[in-house]
From TrEMBL:
InterPro entries assigned to the protein according to its UniProt record, in alphabetical order: BTN3A2-like_Ig-C (IPR053896), Ig-like_dom (IPR007110), Ig-like_dom_sf (IPR036179), Ig-like_fold (IPR013783), Ig_sub (IPR003599), Ig_V-set (IPR013106), T-cell_Activation_Regulation (IPR051713)
Keywords of this entry: Cell membrane, Disulfide bond, Glycoprotein, Immunoglobulin domain, Membrane, Receptor, Signal, Transmembrane, Transmembrane helix
Recorded topology in the membrane: Single-pass type I membrane protein
Name this protein carries in UniProt: T-lymphocyte activation antigen CD80-like
Biological-process GO terms, alphabetical: cell surface receptor signaling pathway; cellular response to lipopolysaccharide; immune response; negative regulation of T cell proliferation; positive regulation of T cell proliferation; T cell costimulation
Ranges for domain Ig-like: 42-130, 138-233
Chief location: membrane
Cited SMART domains: IG
Signal peptide: 1-22
Amino acid sequence: MALSRCICLAIVGEFTLLFCAAMVQLNCQHENLGISRQNSMINCSVKGAEASDVDIGVVIWKKDQSTVLMYYSKTIKTNDPRFQFAEQNWDTRNRNVSLLVTDTRLVDEGQYQCQVITDSGEAEEYTSLKVHARYSKPVMSSIPKNDIRENMRVEIFCNASGGYPAGVIHWYDQYNTNWTRSAETDVVQTEDKLFKLTSKLTVLQASSGFLGYRCVVLNSKRQQEEVAEYNLSFALDNDPEITAQAGDRHSMTITAVLVVVGSLACGLLILMLLRRRRSQRYQQGSEVPAGSQF
């Protein structure tokens, strides 16, 4: 909750009068969302007095009790140039004291405190910044990669990295059937605090009727960020059309062989018959009847 107080001292003759001028408050967005490597805004503005009556003398922005931006004595000071006033031409009459964080990083996530002192009072308020990093497009692969056959066991992999906070991977086939419960997913946080997702879906009996699989990356709010598709590569002779064509060619080859073999067999049989007839004629011609004379 914002704290505010104001004290105004006036001297009239011999009397000192203490009274309160218009009170000020800070209206800050409770939670702000930032995107890694992009500019982020922590929204905060002065409320409670007429704009023409407010002259801001001090603004202090702190993160975890460390000052990141300060305006005092007509000078803006910061230890990190990534922290700036949201409005570049900010002046003491500007009620918008929002903090701009350029090139947002994961270390910028946390609680922030804003303090202002004006000629109408002072106030402070707490707010926070949540940083989100988008996951990269998934990379998919399979074991085996090629020459898959019917009913073969196949492992399909999906990898995505660079995201924050931790996300999940869901699996679907070409008919939009959800196979996520059959998959194994590992979530690893790297040194830069980003997360890497590695998931494996095991297809126990691959089928050419289920070629396509889809890997969907969801963020921590279960919102889709990236998607990739993968088709299993079956062996060419596993294709029914190609198999049928190969079968036809095989049948034609066998038929041709049988025709040739049959022709040869017929030729040999005819040759044997001809030789047999010649042999019989020769034997008949060489026989001499008994009692015949020359």
